[in-house]
Amino acid sequence: EYNQIKEHALWGTEMLQAIVGIPQAAIDVACQHHERKDGSGYPKGLKGEQINEYAVIVSIADIYEAMTHPRAYRERFIPYEVMREILKNKKHFAGNYLKILIERIGVFPVGSLVQLSTEEIGVVVDINKDFPLKPTVKIILDQQQMKVAEEAVINLTLHPALYIRK
Asked: What share of the chain is helix, strand, coil (3-state, %, to 5)?
């Protein structure tokens, strides 16, 4: 079944090639969006510079999107877990594009619920592209997990001892 699923890249390529006026880059993206820098991808096992630059970008976005949504065979991952998995397998991807993904989305994307080292719970309201592990957080629950009377917004880059626990 997995081998059949892997055929979708070739099927999409064939369909796009049959349409007059489709740019070659779009066809390449359809064919190559599961290729990996180290040659471990499919359908052709392309490596590095053999892979269209747009396909590299779509590949990373596709993985991020797929992992942050539930599938019939697994629950969804939270964004932090997705980033951890992507970085654990960084040999598959072009480092410059991973850096851009982290800068744009952040390790803790806006809207993420986080628990700080103080046990407070907050919502990420802004990412700090230079310090991806130190976003700006709005505190919504105190250390006893009670709603705070007055919400505080904390830029973690200004508080070196404060960090995200989970």
From this structure: 40, 15, 40
Query: Per mean pLDDT, which range of 17-21, 60-64, 95-99, 142-146 is the poorest?
Result: 95-99
Q: Considering only CA atoms, which of 114, 31, 116 is closest in space to residue 124? A: 114
Locate 89 and state its tokens.
């397998």
Task: Judge whether 118 and 134 are in contact, CB under 8 Å.
Answer: no
| Sign of the alpha-carbon dihedral angle for 91, 94, 99, 105 | negative
Q: Is the pLDDT of residue 107 over 90?
A: no
- Taking residue 65's Cβ as centre, other Cβ atoms within 10 Å add up to 10
Are residues 98 and 83 in contact, defined by beta-carbon separation less than 8 angstroms? no
List, in sequence order, the alpha helices (H) in 69-165.
79-88, 95-105
Q: What is the DSSP letter of 164?
A: B
> How far apart, in whole angstroms, are the C-alpha atoms of residue 125 and residue 109?
8
Predicted confidence (pLDDT) per residue in 32-86, tens digit = 999 999 999 999 999 999 999 999 999 999 999 999 999 888 899 988 899 889 9
